Amino acid sequence: MGMADIVVTVWVLAIFGVLFIWLPATRLLSNWDRITCRHVARGFARITLTTVVAAWVLSRLQAFNALTLIAVYAGWAVLLWTMRHRRSSAAVARQRLRHTALKAASLCEQGGDWRDRLAATSPRRLTDQVSALVRAWWGTLQLTPDEVMMLLLVSIAVGVTLTLRFIWPLGQMRLGHPEGYQALLGTQAILAGQPVAAGPPAVPAVAATLSIFGAAAPIQIVRLLGPVVGCLLVAAVAYCIRLLTKNNAAALAGTFALGLYVFSSGAFAADLPIGAAELGRAFNDALTRQWAGASVEFGALFVVISAIVWHDAKNSGHRAAWFDGFACMALVACAEPRLLPAAFLAASVAFAPPLTALLGFSIGWVLLGIGSLELGTVMGPTLLSTLPIALALSIGALFHLATRALDGVTRLRLEPIALLLVAVLSVLAMPGRVDGQYLEYDVAARKTLEIVNSFPRQRWLIAAPVEALAQTYGRGGYEDLQQFVDRYSAKAGDPRFTFPFSVDHVFIFVEKHPFVTFAKEPIEVPFDVLTDPSYRYYRAAAGRASVEYSAYELCERYRRAHSDASIYYEDDVLKIYHFVLPAAG
Amino acid sequence: MSDVLSELTATVAETSPELADEWEAAALVESFGYTDQAVQQSLGFANTRALGQHVYERVMATPSVRRSEDERPLDLRARIRHEAAIFIRVLSSSLVYSIPWIVVFFFQYMHREALAIDARVAGPITVAPMVSLITSGGFIQGIARKGDYYLALNQPVLARATCWLLWRWGLAVTLVVALAAFLTGLYFHIFDRGPLLIALVYYVALSILWMTCALLTLRQRHWRIPLVFLVAGIVFALARISFGLSTLAAQSFAVAAALVAAGIFAMFVFDRNQARESDRHHDLTLPQAPVFVYSLAPYFCYGAAYFSFLFADRIAAGSAVPLLTGLQFSLQPTYQAAMDAALLAFLLIAAFVEYCNFTYMHFWHTEARRRGPQEFAELTSRLRRRRLYLAAAICVLLALIAVIEWIVLYRAKPELLGTTGLWVFVLGVVGYALFSLALFDALMLFSLNQARRVVRALAPALILNLLVGYILSHALAVPYAVVGLLLGGIWFAVDARRGVRKSLGHAEYAYYAV
After folding, report:
1. CB 3.0-4.6 Å disulfide test: which of A158, A429, B165, B284 passes with A265?
2. Contacts of B288 in chain A (CB under 8 A)
3. Nearest chain A Cα to B183, which residue?
4. Chain segment A338-373, per-residue pLDDT in tens
5. From chain A, which residues contact B within 8 Å (Cβ)?
6. What is the complex's ipTM, to 2 decimals?
7. A214 CB contacts (<8 Å, ≥6 apart)?
8. How far apart are CA A287 and CA A258, in angstroms?
């Protein structure tokens, strides 16, 4: 992991935090006087929906860029300002503009004095503000043994949650789950002004927006969005339990369950009779999704947030809260429509008493998942992959029920003991090893990104396995490696032959050691999968080896016959050939 | 004393031949700087009211004093000569800016392929002059207005100091904007690095050139500006033909030559002896910055908004490039040719609009002096009628220019314009016609010291132009960007007309409020 990767990660996370968490909670884009976690959740839902809709529409209009996005957010702020000041909004705006202009002119007239004054007072003012905040927070802390234990357990939960989700993406440029490539392709489609090709638009729209504001490549955004969504999911589950049970310990129990991902333990092993051992496979797949998830996890996040928001709507009755609730449902539909049953479930139980609502929601979601798998519906696999989230909610709810029921049975307070027990069990049940479901070498993804960033747009073409399509779409040309070999292998050795591409540079990715997708090749493969070109040429080890060898022969023949061929990059596993074509047109 | 009194009476009579009452006379006397004490000591009256009473009686008793030389009846030939002289003077001061652009336009139209630049560089270079005019437009207005104002007050040293102060502020703003554009362009990958740098250099150079040209227009020596562009044209021709340089290189040398020529001329705009004298004695006090800024702010905003309006449709059209082409900004040749032609017609008619405003305000001034308070209704009616005639003349002349232009251009290169080009040209001409009418009203409002009214009319028109043009060019097709210009022109024309109608409704107040 290089310094550049760290810088990009920190920057992207900062942009995400500012744009999706901080900005919608400020006075600029909201009318709230007091900010709580509920308001942050609602603000997150609002700005995400605004971003998704704006990105889709602007992309359709071929006008998707930083300026138009800023105009959308500014329009929101202006609308809020106008509603706040009503008839006097124009007069207030004129007065403030006039005041600012005259103040600026005065400052210019004073010359260097104002700069010296500013430099002298700003650091002192900032120091005073920060120390006042720290003193206020320290004053509210009550360091009883219970508080200390809670603090410690929260630190462990947060620390492990972050580690489990960020440790893999930080070291790898390649995406950790096949669905990530779909999200990446959708993101590139939106950036290229073709949103219809993007499929469910929520994740691609958010990723495209972050790519623009963060000035980071889409692949960087998609690989970092996975762990961010994973962490937000844990936080949302914890807050949902806390809100509906008013019990911090129950919330922490749920956090341990999902944050430390206890579902990969033997208790959920693949040999359980449910769904022909499909359950175990789903849990193992969901483990990867904790840090490499895309649309499904994003949709699940808003299912949980919707439960929080509906609770708020029920208590406050404000129209804005109802709007936020429907916004969450719209986001679930935009991210992963197959999760809508869970969203409807959250809405329908929200108006029951809080604990009943939480139990109904969590257990209902579990039953939805298992039930749909048993019934063999098309939503089965999707709902199943969100089962760990539902189970974590259930664990929190059951923890609360159990501790309340048993409270007073003995003289000892059971809650801290139960929480400690849950923490220990969670740590013991943590996954010992987490592997991504990679489809390519990390260096192939890095080199593709390097080519995309270094060469002018649409003036180059890459011939590589199918994963490269998502990385190059909209920025340059792409040829499927197997088709490339099929078409040009016979002619490559002819000195008079040139590739019929209207670009300046052609790059061919040849794997010296063909990438192996499966640790163990499946013994039985359905016929439709077997005949799929992507599986035959890139997932099956033998097929991939055959294509790569043919590509190697083609490139060597071309290199011998043409002087404008060179090696762009070579290491133990990968060799990238670079052919410079004669000027097109 | 009697000489002083006679001179004072004559000055009052010349300023306002039809005094309303003795209070108006007293107000005029006080506006000349006379206080009660000064009047007591120098003229022997008790106070300015008593002096005003005396002056009023003398002026109303002597009709010959009230009539100035200007109003003596002229014969027809003298009148025609007088009008022609004004026409040529006003027209030439406006047309000097248009002539270089007209020459460049025809040259580019006839030799488009020979002057082509790589598409990746052409886009940013097309944007650079537009943005340079937008950001320096406000400073150009400020330099021209303050310079003319202080020179008319016979304060050349103050004129020099304020104009060069505005020039320095303009340079500082240009450099800050260039730096911000560079960082933004790099961060958001707006253009490739090389073309971006070239465009920014062009932007800074052209901004300095426009502001320096604003200095050159002072003292009515407008011939310096065509000379600057002539130098640039010669250098371009030499570089391209004699030395065989590329279009980009030749263009760059031409801009540099124009800058050098403008810089040399600018050193002689003001009297260097007076400037040296002032610097030595340090006796010059500039206006306070907040007051300066407050007085110039409406003109500054107008200058920026004016050029923004002219180029908004091009910016919208140029940005509507499909992302898959790999280009970020590129104008379609047909659209560019059609709108350039429409803009050419506008530049020619803008000079005529200035002349119309000059004659109209002169007419207003003459009529107001001739008529008393009981004839204000008649004054208003005559003003409205004169305005209508001039507006009609503007429209007819613009239509004539447009027709002639189309015939010439279409015959030269029919394949470039075509049916789409015709529609864009027609809509563009209509849009600029509306803008010309609005400009006529805006100049009138400027003359009546209602600059803020103009900015309040132009700002929403600009937003409408940009928004509609941007959305339609992206959603439908590039040529639809001209619809934004049309709608913006309608808004500006209607709102400016409303402002003028309000002023004409109280013509006497509007005139005397100046």
Report:
1. A429
2. 109
3. A215
4. 999 999 999 999 888 988 999 999 999 999 888 877
5. 61-63, 65-66, 101-102, 104-106, 108-109, 191-193, 212, 215, 456-459, 474
6. 0.81
7. A8, A11, A12, A15, A16, A220, A221
8. 10
